Amino acid sequence: MASLGPWSAEEAIEYLREEYPGLSPDPADQVRAAVGSLPANVQVQFRLMTDTSIEQVVQHIRERSDGLPLRELTGVTLNFHPDTAVDGITTIEAIARDGIYRSQFETGSSNGGMTAYPGGDRWNWESRIFGGAYDQADVALRPKYGALNYRAEPVGGSPRFGSCHLRLRPHVLSRTTFCYPDSVQNPRDFGVSDRMSLIELAKANVPNLDDVLDNYIEAHVHGTLQVSADVEAIVLDPCYRDTAVERAALTLGCILEWHDGFRLSLDHLGSCAQFRGPTVAEAISRISIDGVVTPLEIGTARDVVLDYQMAKWVWHCVARFGRIASVSDN
């Protein structure tokens, strides 16, 4: 971890470009991701993660990993809801505005648990898994969470966390670590791209995890995640065609693709009530349009008709029982 300053943002950028001419992502992107927009006369003490320190984190996980290298076509995806609110705009609009995908520590929003603060569960497990590497780091440097899409699922590797996903370019694998199961479950099995035994564990599913929502291999992308350099495609649910979500996606500078979609029929309310409870089934019925709920209806109802937790549970039902022509309801 490099400690710099106190300098202005521009001084820090200039220093990094001189000292680390091959630094990626670009120093300007790293600094601006860390501090946002500050007055020119404000000086800041910077802690920025260099290529060397990222390699040290990856090596820390490599030493706890075993297995053979990944197949070339196995990639990492980051699932998220494009229409959740961040700073008064939607998540996808924020990504388009900044050109960067940010972690919960920066955005204050999540499609999982909200524990990204010092002493919170996410802070504690990152400290434990990564050997304290991020304990004193700027929040912009913390890992971004996704999944190893080892089954090449069109909806991404972890649809539990959202209806759309970013598919990352292959080079990002070199600064990505993995665990199974999810880090919230205090995993003991880890992997990197050249030592990967986790796929066999996920296929065996000894913990008997829900195969649709929970049986994924968690991915941690270290360093700044820059859309133009690191993202191959954004893949959206077709319910967002001709909406503000599609318009924002078209400005990202990467390929826009569509998967088959999620459409939950009210015919599945009984299964939803059994899965997440009768109150959730009632909420699904309340927000449905013509007897169907898609991610678009959830986005429209979020923070208006549905609170944070209810919206999450409704989505779990849509993801579990509403995937078109691919997933069994059993």
Written description of the protein model:
The protein has helices at 9-19, 27-35, 51-62, 91-98, 104-107, 121-129, 198-204, 227-230, 244-249, 269-276, 278-287, 295-301, 308-321, and strands at residues 2-7, 44-48, 76-80, 85-86, 89-90, 100-101, 144-148, 164-168, 176-180, 189-192, 218-221, 225-226, 231-236, 255-258, 264-265, 292-293. With 330 residues, the chain is of the alpha+beta class. The protein folds into three domains: 2-48, no CATH class; 57-258, no CATH class; 264-321, no CATH class. The strands form five sheets. Strands 10-9-11-7-3-8-13-14 form an eight-stranded mixed beta sheet, sandwiched between helices. It has a two-stranded antiparallel sheet with strand order 1-2. Helix 9 (244-249) links the parallel strand 13 (231-236) and strand 14. The radius of gyration is 20 Å and the shape is globular. The relative contact order is 0.14. Residues 326-330 have low confidence and may be disordered.
